[in-house]
Amino acid sequence: MDLKASIAVWLRMLGGSHEEIFAEELQKPYARLATAVIWLVAAGLVAVLVWILVFMLLDPMAQSMEMMPQFLEQMGFSAAESTELVTQMENTAQVSMFLMLCGLLVGIPGLALAWSGALWLVAKLLGGSGNYGKQTFLLASFITPLVMVSVLLYLFPLLGPLLVMGLLVYGLYLTYFAVKVVHGLPAQKAFTAVAAPVIGFMIITCCVGTLWLAMLGAALGAA
């Protein structure tokens, strides 16, 4: 599919009567896993390009490093030591930026495919009959534009993250319809198929966060 046709599908999937639209799109010849992967990779590329532009235009690393020599001198470091430390910080920042961009490029499609896999597994356990490729196509048809918009919104302080959270909730709302249509599940089972992975993710996140805080507390206590 070309870009114009893809955008038309994305806009169609983001609005309207979702069950009818999703059911119609499932019958299209492009409703397959390959299309979904291409769209998700495109979302990752857009995220990378946006952040590259941010780094090029705003250059936050240079702004943060500008006052660093003076700060280090006030802490008692010599000029030579300050120069060496600043160089090390700049190198670390560049590597971190590169890893972050790679993470966006690989992580966005990777997480979306994993999320689709979790939904597919739960739906199957609940009696769903849908195909993973078809399901992933439907998910990618709205995840892709939502990710692209979220990357842009996130650049705006305070309001941006709140709007991104709103888009996340809307994405879950669309996910409910996608799972319901693909697997032919009744409303309650479709809701459970979406809610179960979300709750599981929240529990894992809380456990990891609690473990990290416990380890940090033990390290500080030992020090």
Query: Can you summarize the main beta sheet?
Result: none
Principal-axes shape call: elongated
Average the pLDDT over all residues and give the rounded result. 84
Strand tally: 0
Work out the count of structural domains.
1
Roughly how many Å is the radius of gyration?
22 Å
Strand content: under 5%
Helix content bin: over 70%
H/E element order: HHHHHHHHH
Set down the secondary structure blueprint.
Elements: H1 3-14, H2 18-25, H3 33-58, H4 60-66, H5 68-74, H6 79-125, H7 132-153, H8 159-183, H9 187-222
Helix pairs in contact: 1-2, 1-7, 2-8, 3-6, 3-7, 5-6, 6-7, 6-9, 7-8, 8-9
How would you describe this protein?
With 223 residues, the chain is an all-alpha fold. It has nine helices and no strands. The radius of gyration is 22 Å and the shape is elongated. The N and C termini lie far apart (59 Å).
